[in-house]
Design brief:
Layout (H helix, E strand, L loop, with lengths): L1 H25 L5 E2 L2 H21 L6 H21 L1 E5 L2 E5 L2 H21 L4 H31 L1
Antiparallel strand pairs: 1-3, 2-3
Helix pairs in contact: 1-4, 2-5, 3-5, 4-5
Length: 155
């Protein structure tokens, strides 16, 4: 009974995540304030979560494959980060995510969560997707913070 309850709760939160991604897709053009402290905080938490997730799953990918996937995520995030425009407006320093980034991010997170909930275990592909997505987010958000500091210096 308890495992069924947890699965239902997990699918409920996965549905909330999907609705959040749909909302992001509907408002992706809307500019948002760049908040570097919150971006850095979120990325540090994501990296810690990835490290814990990797350790708890005993890293079935192996160190080298894990590292290659992470570097691929960083490379992808670097290029995504170059597409995010950070600019000064009357309201402050603003940005908006790109549509391809939101779709990629949402799809990768959905797949990792859905596969884990559905199978009840952490397959290698889930860990690989998590590593790729974390690398992607770290580099993309790092680029946003870097652009923020450049724009702030010109103000």
């Amino acid at each position: 009974m308890w495992p069924v309850f947890l699965k239902i709760v997990s699918y409920f939160f996965l549905t909330l995540f999907v609705l959040g991604v749909v909302l992001m897709l509907l408002t992706w053009r809307k500019e948002k304030f760049v908040k570097p402290k919150w971006i850095l905080f979120g990325q540090i938490i994501a990296l810690i979560a990835l490290i814990v997730f990797t350790a708890l799953s005993h890293n079935p990918l192996g160190k080298w494959i894990w590292l290659i996937i992470f570097i691929a995520g960083l490379a992808g995030g670097y290029f995504y980060g170059r597409t995010v425009k950070v600019k000064k407006s009357e309201r402050g320093i603003m940005m908006n995510y790109t549509l391809p980034y939101i779709i990629t991010w949402g799809l990768l997170l959905f797949l990792t969560q859905f596969l884990t909930i559905s199978t009840g275990r952490v397959p290698i592909i889930v860990l690989g997707l998590s590593v790729l997505n974390t690398g992607l987010n770290l580099a993309m958000n790092g680029h946003v913070v870097w652009n923020y500091s450049r724009v702030k210096k010109t103000v």
